[in-house]
Structures are given as C-alpha cells and as structure tokens.
Design goal:
Elements lengths: L1 H23 L36 H13 L3 H8 L6 H20 L11 H9 L4 H18 L5 H20 L5 H13 L3 H14 L4 H11 L7 H13 L10 H8 L14 H16 L7 H14 L3 H11 L14 H18 L10
Length: 372
C-alpha cells in the first residue's frame, strides 16, 4: 500500500511539473469566446464552425451538385453520368463511390420506410434495377452494403456477417462488370477486415488492386486497417506495410505520408511519455507527410486527407505556424480523419483550429504574417 501511495505522489508531482514547464514555454489553452485572450479564427478568414462541411475532406463541387440533384429529385442518372465520366483508376472515383453510397445509407437511416412511406435511398435501388449492368451503380451498391454493415450491425454478429457476405458477392459482381476497375476490390478490403479474411486471402485481394492501381492512396489507407493491431495485424505489421508503401512511392505520390497514418492508428490511449509528439517516430512521419503534400499535384484529391491528419499532429507537436499553413489550404471541409472519429467532427476540428490560432499568435503570429 505504501508503494502505491508513493507512485501516486510521483504521478501528481510529474503532472504539476509538466504544467509549470508548459507555462514557461508559453503553451496555450482554450478560453471562452469573448475572453480578452481569445484568438479568433475568423480573423484569418476561416469558416465558422456551423459552416464546416462534414461530408467530404475537401472540395468537389461537381459531386456536391450531383448529390443535391439526386437527393432532391430521387433520380439516379446524374450520379450514373458523373461516375461514368470519372477516371476509373483515379482517387476521385473511389471517393465519389463512397459519397453516393454514404448518401443512400444516411437517407435510409433517416427514413427507414413503413406503411405508406418509401424508404430513403430509393434512387439507388432504382439505379440497380433499371441498369443492372452499369459498373458505377454496382460499385455504389457494394459500398452501400459495406456501410450498412458497419452502421447497423455489430462485428462478429450474425447480422453483420450476413450483410458483409452480401457485400462480398456484390463486390464480385461489380468487378465482373469492369475488369480493370480497382474500386470493387477496394470496397472488398473493408469486407476482408470485417469478415477476417485469412492473410493469404487478403494478400491475394491486395495483389489484384496493385495490378490495377499500384499507387492508389485510398486503397492503401483501406488496406492499412487490416494490418493494424486492433484488427488482424500488429503495430509492426502496420508500420512495415506503411513504410514499404512510402519507400516505393513515385515522385509526387502521397504514399510517402502512409507512416503518419500508421502512427495515428497506434497512438497510445494514455500518453505517459513526455514529448511523445516530438519523438523521432512521430517527427519522421510528419516530415514524410509534409514532403508528400508539398510535392503532390495541387489537384490530388487525397491531399486533403493528409493535410487534415497533419493538422492533428502539428498542433499536438506545438508546431503552430506549420499547422496554420495546412489550415489555410483545407479549412471549410472536415470529412476526414481524425475528425470523423468524433460524434461532432466540426466541433473537434474547431478545437484544434482554435489551438493552432492561439499558439500561432502566442508566438508572434498574426493574420498579416500568415502566407496564403
């Protein structure tokens, strides 16, 4: 018992010393709006919290316009045309498939249907019924089933497995309709995680993706989940997968940022190590991600995913100016990790943004000194 009290005393002493140290370094904290010391993100032209778009990580006006049309008219043809005109092996097609499937799933959750009322997402059912050979509709339907499984059932239950088995069959059907399209196989990566594919079967699936789109960032992020400690791998396996992807990344590829996602997926629940976010493993991963976004094409749709995660790590590392630089590029959209793990992604993002602004100003920054 005496040893326990000694340990508790040491923990409390360490906490007090940490706070003193932070004050001496000029660390920042949040204060209520209107407080004299409050930093105002609006001074930098940032969107208000209620204006933040939680649907996507970054802008895609064509997608937003079509989504609005489809949901307003319940006519699938706009979605069909948009996907038909989107490059099959590109990142944007995968994102748009996810968005259409997510919209249909959300509609169904909001309007499950009943006596005299059609269920939400009816446009997707009509799409599949009227054009069963349409590859875009087949891919959206497969992703819809995957999202339904994760949203409505618990992994390991019979209900979850039944929906995932249906999704697996839908992935196979979608792949047959478009043999060179990697999207059906990327959708199946989530099925593989949910059903717990043996490693040999998972690796065979992964090879099919590499044959079609070897540098697909979205596919790598989906595959990383399987190798994580919380699913079917380990920290070492996830790090190895991410580092191998970064090592073979061609010039201008965002795959160089993969180690940062592996670090995020294995963050300790309680960080007892002082300066964890300034540690070598985090610093190296952050630098790789910064290099990736600086060398990638400005129109790469996966840039936003990397920048959002960078904001999380840069704020935690108290690298305020670098965090502000990322915010100027992606502010306005918050549909990405790590914010989407929160029940209120916009509020979570707003907290980190406010910390970045406060830290930037505490170290002499101002709207005038921030490059745009």
């Amino acid at each position: 018992m005496e040893i326990l009290w000694v340990l508790m005393a040491l923990v409390m002493l360490g906490f007090v010393l940490l706070q003193i140290s932070r004050r001496r370094r000029g660390a920042v904290g949040l204060v209520p709006p209107g407080h004299p010391d409050a930093a105002d993100p609006a001074n930098y032209g940032f969107a208000r919290e209620e204006e933040l778009d939680v649907r996507m990580p970054g802008p895609d006006q064509d997608l937003l316009d079509v989504l609005d049309l489809v949901q307003r008219t319940q006519d699938y043809r706009g979605a069909q045309q948009l996907l038909a005109g989107t490059e099959a092996k590109g990142e944007r097609r995968w994102q748009r498939v996810q968005a259409f499937a997510g919209a249909a799933s959300l509609e169904l959750r909001q309007r499950p249907g009943g006596v005299g009322e059609a269920p939400g997402g009816q446009w997707l059912r009509v799409w599949r019924a009227e054009t069963p050979k349409d590859a875009g509709g087949a891919a959206v339907h497969a992703e819809f089933l995957v999202q339904q499984a994760w949203r409505t059932a618990t992994p390991g239950t019979d209900d979850f497995r039944i929906i995932m088995e249906e999704a697996k069959a839908a992935c196979g059907g979608a792949a047959l309709l478009a043999p060179g399209d990697p999207v059906p196989y990327i959708v199946e990566l989530s099925v593989a995680r949910g059903l717990g594919y043996p490693r040999e079967e998972f690796e065979q699936l992964w090879l099919k993706i590499l044959d079609r789109a070897p540098n697909h960032m979205g596919a790598h992020l989906a595959a990383l989940q399987y190798w994580c400690e919380k699913w079917h791998g380990s920290r070492d396996l996830a790090y190895s997968f991410a580092e191998a992807a970064a090592a073979r990344a061609p010039q201008g590829s965002l795959l160089a940022a993969m180690p940062l996602f592996a670090v995020f997926e294995h963050l300790p629940e309680v960080n007892l190590v002082s300066g964890f976010y300034q540690s070598e493993v985090v610093t190296k991963a952050v630098h790789g991600a910064l290099h990736a976004v600086h060398s990638a094409r400005p129109d790469d749709p996966m840039q936003a995913h990397v920048r959002h995660l960078l904001i999380f790590f840069l704020v935690r590392s108290e690298r305020w100016a670098e965090a502000m630089n990322q915010l100027t590029v992606i502010d306005g959209h918050v549909g990405a990790l790590p914010w989407t793990l929160s029940a209120d992604p916009a509020a979570e993002f707003a907290v980190y943004r406010a910390l970045a602004v406060a830290g930037y100003e505490a170290n002499g920054g101002s709207p005038a000194t921030l490059p745009h």
